[in-house]
Design a protein that fits this description.
The complex is a heterotrimer of chains A (306), B (637) and C (316).
Chain A lengths: L4 H4 L7 H7 L6 H11 L1 H23 L33 H36 L1 H16 L2 H11 L4 H28 L2 H8 L4 H37 L11 H8 L8 H28 L6
Helix pairs in contact in A: 3-12, 4-5, 4-12, 5-6, 5-8, 5-10, 5-11, 5-12, 8-10, 9-10, 10-11, 10-12, 11-12
Chain B lengths: L1 H17 L18 E7 L15 H7 L7 E3 L5 E3 L2 E6 L5 E6 L4 E3 L5 E4 L2 H12 L1 H4 L5 H6 L3 H9 L3 H5 L3 H7 L2 E2 L5 E5 L21 H7 L18 E7 L3 E6 L13 E7 L2 H9 L5 E3 L2 H9 L10 E2 L6 E6 L12 H7 L2 H10 L3 H7 L26 H9 L14 H17 L6 E8 L3 H18 L4 E8 L3 H6 L6 E6 L7 H4 L10 H7 L7 H19 L4 H17 L3 E6 L3 E4 L1 E2 L19 E2 L6 H12 L1
Parallel strand pairs in B: 1-12, 16-17
Antiparallel strand pairs in B: 2-3, 4-5, 5-9, 6-7, 8-9, 10-11, 11-12, 13-20, 14-20, 15-18, 15-19, 21-22
Chain C lengths: L1 H28 L8 H6 L2 H10 L6 H13 L15 H36 L4 H15 L2 H15 L11 H32 L2 H9 L3 H18 L1 H8 L5 H6 L8 H7 L3 H29 L13
The chains are: A mainly alpha (306), B alpha+beta (637), C mainly alpha (316).
Chain lengths: 306, 637, 316
Amino acid sequence: MKKNNDDLFRFVEYSAEAAERTGYSDYSYWKSVFQNFLKKKSAVVMAFIFFGLVIFSFIALAIGKYDYAELLTDSALAFQAPNGEFWFGTDNLGRDYWCQVWFAAQTSIKLAIIVALGECFVGVTIGCLWGYVRVLDRPLTEIYNVINNIPMIIYMTLIALLIGQSFTVMAISLICFGWLPMARNVRNLVLMYRDREYNLASRCLGTPVWRVLVKNILPYLISIIILRLALSIPSTIALESTLSYLGLGLGIDTPSLGILLRNARNYFLDYPYLLIFPAVIVSLITITFYLVGNAFSDAADPRNHV
Amino acid sequence: MKKRTKVLALVLALGMVLTGCGSSSAGGNGSGDGIKDLVTWETSNREMENMVILNTEMANDLNVLGNCVEGLLETDAQGKLIPGLAKEWGTEDGGLTWTFKLREGVKWVDVNGNEKADCTAQDFVTGLEWVMNFHKNGAANTSMPTSLIKGAGEYYEYTKNLPAEEALSMDNTKFLEMVGIETPDDYTVVYHCITNATYFDTVCPSACLYPMSAAFVAEVGVENVLGSSNETIWYNGPYTLTEYIQGNTKTLTKNPTYWDKECSLFDTVTIRIIEDITVGFQLYQNGELDHIDLSEANLRTIWNDENNEYRDQLVEKLPRKYSYQMHFNYDKYNEDGTPDTNYNTAIANEAFRQSIYYGLDLTKYFERTNFINPLKCENNAYTMKGLLYFSDGTEYTAKVKELLGFGESDGKTPVRFDGAKAQELKAKAMEELSAKGVTFPVELDYYIVAGSQNALDTATVLQQIFSECLGDDYIKLNVGTYVSSQTKEVIQPQLHSFVINGWGADYGDPQNFLGQETYGEDTAYYSNNYSNINNATDADLIATYKEFTDLVNKANAITDDMDARYFAYAEAEAYMLQHALSVPTLLDISWQLTHVNDYTRSNAMFGIQNYMYKNWETSVDAYTTEQYDAIAEEFYK
Amino acid sequence: MVKYTIKRLLQTLVTVLIVATIVFLLMRMLPTDYFFTEDQLMKLTPEQKQEQLEAAGLTDPVGEQLIRFYGQILRFDFGESRRIQSGVDVVKVIGSKFTVSMRLGCTALVISLFVGVFIDIIQTINKDKLLDHIGTGYTIFVNAVPSLVSYSLVLVFGSTVLGLPSLYSTRNPGPSSILPVVCLSLASIAHYALWTRRYMVDELNKDYIKLARVKGMSFNSIMVKHVFKNAFVPLVQYIPTSFLYTIGGSLLVERFFSVPGMGPLLNDAIIRYDVNVVQTLAIIYGTMGTVGVFLGDVLMMLLDPRIKLVGKGETR
């Protein structure tokens, strides 16, 4: 069984490329995040429920017996409890509640998601720069202080008076004033991590700022960012209902869950279903988002990887 | 450590409540002769702002201050004038000169009831001087004295041109010289009017003629009068405002020195601020309020449930003192600032307006206010019902309805609604207007306040009524919103097609109503602000308006025979309505639960005394529907 | 440190001044018509309106008004309220309100800090057990239901079932404060519980904890000595701000329970164009916010020496 060893072992030429490859592992951050996330069955179910809800809001409008745009008032039909004709009952004017709820759900989900993503994007970008780049600390703190310390009601009143009320205006103004907590949160975390030894090392090796931010620091922040994102959804819905309550919310042609809930406040003791249906949908959105966000933020924590 | 004490205190307090140490509920005095301490309410957006009665024109303030300061005359449950500080009054020259004889022994007191001074004729001079002095009072409450009292307007202009220092330090000498008011003795006030103001006495219950003590001004200093608190102002009315917590509570306490020893007063009246009437209903249920208006949902629940504990306590309120009208805009602009020619041409057409006048079955609209007796809310006059009466007791608006040819309602549809006639008018209008190049449907814009679901619901109902009664091919009603001020956001840019609101009377004469709609007169409020009739170009429309204006002016010239005067006004009003220059909509009659007999309260269509808590009859147990019906029947007999 | 403090306080002054200026200018952006009540708009002639605006100094060029405004601030003269309480000094109007808000707010804050952190510790100790899920359920519920609705529920439940007074009353502030305080605490308990939990779980995953376990430290002493202390650092920054913000009150809660506090004041003042009140409030809120951030930074620095705010110029 003696073999010629020369056939088995031979010298290779030095190749920098190949040398680099030895240090390479098959690790991809986002792939691990998703792998970890998918392991949490409950969260996956929640994610499905959420998407199901969104899709169903469209189906619901299609299968409903009444068309939102053509609702008629009829005081004889006011406050009908849910029945075969009116699946969610009727409101104080005798209009079908089913199509109102689902129409409002669509508006609210759309607004909440747009605002959450917008806030997240603006907030994280500014927050990272704010925390990391020291020269920006002063001016950004100043801007933050100024925007944050002028009560939002002043802005919203002025916007409503001078520009008007619509979905776009609402979304943009909520983003404009909503990125602040996210930015501040991110900034504080960046402050904590920026002077850690490995970042010091990175900086000594001449890594550019954006690379340190994106590769070294951001992964630590993702769990917090996602949690804030998930929480921003209910807070947007709540804020929207508060603003509507003050007359500063969406225009009258765009009913939202916030508005339905605000109205139900006057009726729910006598006609609880008017509160329950929108409240359940709001809660579903919130809970699914919260749980998915929680699981995702656990999965996004690089320390739980590998 | 301090914080922890607070937590402990809270826990202790909780314990106290749970063991039943709560204060006794309102109206729980148990005696047969009504409530001693009334607890009433006001919603938070109607909180009081000003403590100086001469400086405010807002009902929020006057409803409270009317209890603190007393004027020359009061009003009673029938809406008639009764003596106040003046024990007798009258005119002998058809309304040019009015003499008031004052009661003696009336005292000004401070908040604790300590006597400060006597209330004399001089106080009325000081009061009017204060009102008309620009630097003392701004321009608050000046409109009526300016138009009625000799020299008042001139005095206002005179003070305006003075340096502030000088105007503030002025005493009454110059004023008495310039203005038509005099005090022959300490207990007589004489007013000289510009015209034959046969109705001048009905201005007396308004804030502009209320007294003010010169000694009070001297005490607090002239520059500190505005900005007085309830602690510093002087009182001569039935109550003193002993507690004022902005946004929470106001307490009126009986004034022991009040001149009218015969009248019945509450020991205290507490006015609580509530967020809305839904919260208020809960408070009522807990016995924390003595009366509450019912929201739509509450009313429906109680009405639909035979066994509800409040089912037999539902009582109908008296109408609010506004006669709601659809005021058309004859010079409408689009949002981009261009004139809305299509609409302007259409609304100038009489058949078009009349089709709206006859064609709208407003029953569903009334149901928003009163779904139990919707047709009770129907309004067919421009002037408010109950403002005045002919000498034979006929109510003025009844005469207007008679002239219009409206009979009694059949209980199913509003009296005015005439579908067949409306269809004819519609066809006529479409024909005439198409010839003028008007495109159909004509778009009407109606604006409501943003954020009020109630307003939106009502507008939705109205929209549907337009669509069902007049057809989508004819008129399309759009609903828009304003954020905080209708006047600023809608009326001034002239964006509205019509505004629905009601005029609150300043004094008891039809001139106060019809005079707001005349053509080409600066004093006509609705013409200048809402209908913009003076900018209209359509010859027929202007001719109609001029005719109406002539009728009004002719009526106004009759000062010797009141019946003839009122009849002439009724004819002018009927003319106006027949030509649908304005479309009456609603009388606001809603439902409530109450311990108060509304038929004993002052119920005048003018003045500020409907919230004067004097001679109110109350019941420890809530009134029942039956009791109230009996009281109403007795009242109208 | 002293130098840093002085510097930060000066910065605070600058910020407050900028805030005041911006609010001042924003209010001037509103058409002057907002100065009048609907009634006045109807009844006053254009000349009378013009005269009133002139008397109030609103017709002067904005620059001039601004300089006058700065002069007033320097003299601590905030002017008179116009429509909240006509003619009364703004300081007096606000002074009568802020103690009420602060009393309720501080009570609620203390309650929610303790209860929130307590709930959270229980949750973390029992991670993934029943108590954890109950806690999470509560957090989710409170966050899921908009406050407009949850306050109504508290109001109805408290007044009809428990028989608590549903309107705040100065005659018996104790019992009538219960419901507003519950409402105020409800949300912030969830807030604190949520974030403390997040930070604590993050902290538990760190290597030094594993080391401590390996060294044989008991779980409880790890929790108290390390985890809680470290998790508290990011949280602590918000505490001074929260305390100061209690002065501002809560719009919804104070409206619902008719608490005569600061909460609804700003909104009311804007709607009524009570410029002096709005400006003064803006200065107050501005000061609270900036001082709060500053105190938060200092607290964070004291608790975690690794955080450096005073730049030593060592990095870019």
